[in-house]
Amino acid sequence: MKIVIYLYVFTGVLLSSCEKFLDAEPTTSVTQDNYWRTQSDVSNFVTDIYATTFPVVYEGSIFFDEMMSDNAFLVWSGWYTNIRLLANGTQDASGTAPYNIWTRHYANIRKCYSVYENIDKVEGISAIDKETLLAEVEFLEAYNYHRLVFFFDKVPLITKTLTDQESKTVTQSDRETVLNHILDRLNLSIERLSDKTQPKGRADWGSALALKARVLLLENRFEELLPITQELSAKYSLNMAGDRPYEDLFSGMAENSNEIIFSIIRRASSGGVAEGHFANQIFFLKGMSGGDALRACTPTGSLVDAYPMADGRLIRENGSSYYPATPYLNRDPRLYQTVIYPTGNIKYWDGSSIQSTLYDPEDSSTQIKLQQYDAPEPSSSGYMWNKYVDWSPHAMVQITDCTNDIIIMRYADILLMRAEALVELNGSGSKSEVIDIIDQLRNRAKGGLVHRENYNTQGELLDLVRNERRIELANEGLRYFDLIRWRIAEKSPITEGYGLRGDLYGARMRKDGVGRSDRTVAVQGQERRWIEERFFNPAKHYLQPIPQKEIDLNPNLVQNPNW
CA torsion sign, 240 to 245 to 248 to 250? Predict the structure, then answer.
């Protein structure tokens, strides 16, 4: 059978804000026989695997992973709708969201095996370069398989490129078999990369080891995880530079920080080739940059409520100074660096220059007034993301050409993995080190430290660590995975403050009648903006359905329970 390889002009991003990278027209068509000739062929092919494994936006990106959680709400319609259905629990086996997850990751895995099977054909490649490229592909294969296992549990373990006919007869492997394969690939990658320096944006020793840590965390294998966190601590450290070291990680000001383990690199477009990303278009409210902003994703009220007060106490903690009438006063600095809230400052482009105004989601016309621009379709929650917005003058105008890097793995996550593992393994005996870790993160952000007297049992410490993960890593695409692995997704944001079942809510509503045409919901005695109702059946939704299209093609595939 003649296999055709499609080569794309690789930009690492989507060619336009409404066009999937995978839908772009191929610029060259070649066969297996004449493609694998030079080292450049292999390198370009591997670069393409990076691009499709780590999209900056759309499905599979950290932002769309975040939208599946209780931290964020996806409001925009169109093909984004499939992610919203997954988030609110109304998807089914015939839906596009599970299908896209399944097919995207298996397409990437097929590319990985194309490299394994053809790299020996390449002439003139050095042993060192070959080993490095193989290590990168092993890292990429492991990343794609670990997401398949997480979403679907038992999946086919495919270890070669398949013909169309072979793909219709594969069977699922048990979870442990696939996990062992993932860890074997990562161990190979770690070994190959142990003595090599990689350019920014390519997998290196730390990236592979951090991914191994993440896989072990998702599987609750804490005894194996703990020593890896110690090993990574010898190489990485928290960003402490500047006046706002936390915010700088995501704004583009600290892209070379030693905290960043692996990130996606973006640069401004040049020569008509798109290289930036368009997070601003997703996050900006209508009117902030003409009519192009989509306000597609907004933070939720339960996320905002999770941030401590400036003195370190949670808003529901004994001794808290939280006052419902002034909910944004004296809060942890990370709240202000992550979320733009009502009465907070907001920037916008007025057609000729960048301006600043107070953000008001409930003015008399039920619009967000940005001086010269009235903004219909206001934020569904009353909030807007600040974290990962590119506030540079270029990106304020060209909102589809942002240049701040997107972090996939960073050291703060490793510290929180360590804290969780310590609590799970040692209970309250780990109190001192666990709180020391959390205080490191809070101190870096210039926030209040933990009130140690309030955390004495294993359960109290575990709640503390879980909440700290939520706020420290907000809008980094990890929250949904945490809710699922902790088996707390069926909880309600209204009653427990977290979870994927019941009413999702936003900002506090005014008491003067303004904006009261919107539906509201009571949360801790406060009237809050209602966003949507979500559904989560623990007998069903902890796994995604095997796409019905795949089962129709291959009757050997067994559907997950209750789908």
Answer: positive
Element (H, E) at 134: helix 127-152
Alpha carbon distance 555, 361 (integer Å): 51
The boundaries of the domain holding residue 374 are 279-407
For tokens 């359960």, name the residue: 459
Nearest to 67, CA basis, from 402, 532, 453: 532
On whether residue 328 sits in a domain, the answer given is yes
Distance CA 400, CA 268 (A): 10
- Distances from the Cα of 125 to the Cα of 40, 122, 128, 403, angstroms: 9, 6, 8, 33
Q: In this structure, are 328 and 288 located in the same domain? A: yes
Strand, helix or coil for residue 249: helix
Tens of pLDDT, residue by residue over 247-290, are: 999 999 999 999 999 999 877 655 544 578 889 988 987 767 76
Instruction: Name every residue whose Cβ is closer than 8 Å to that of residue 87 and which is 6 or more positions away in sequence.
Output: 67, 68, 69, 73, 74, 500, 534
Tokens in use for 556?
């050997």
Q: Tell me, yes or no, whether 473 and 389 share the same domain.
A: no
Residue 320: what are its φ and ψ, rounded to 5°?
A: -65, 145
Query: Sign of dihedral through CA atoms 427, 428, 433, 439?
Result: positive
* CA pair distance 35, 41, nearest whole angstrom: 7
Question: Quick check: 294 pLDDT over 90?
Answer: no
Q: Round to whole Å and give the CA distance between 159 and 112.
A: 9
* Helix, strand, or coil (residue 494): coil
b/e sequence 252-283, b meaning 16+ C-beta within 10 Å: bbbbebebbbbbbebeebeeeebbbbbbbbbb
Angle between helix axes 127-152 and 39-53 (nearest 10 degrees) is: 20
Angle at 304 between CA 301 and CA 306, to 5 degrees: 110
The candidate with the shortest Cα–Cα distance to 264, out of 57, 523, 411, is 57
Q: How far, in whole angstroms, is CA 197 from its chain's centroid? A: 26
CA 303 to chain centre: 15
Evaluate whether residue 295 is within a structural domain. yes
Query: What is the greatest pairwise CA distance in the chain?
Result: 75
- At 26, is the pLDDT very low, low, confident or very high (cuts 50, 70, 90)? very low
pTM here is 0.91
Give just the sign of the alpha carbon dihedral 446, 61, 72, 314.
negative
What three-state secondary structure class fits 298? strand
Residue 505 backbone phi and psi in degrees, to 5 = -130, 165
3-state secondary structure of 80: helix
| CATH of residue 519 | 1.25.40
Amino acid identity at 194? S
Do you know the residue count of the chain?
Answer: 563
The tally of CA atoms less than 13 A away on the side-chain side of residue 87 is 28
What distance lies between CA 54 and its chain's CA centroid?
Answer: 10
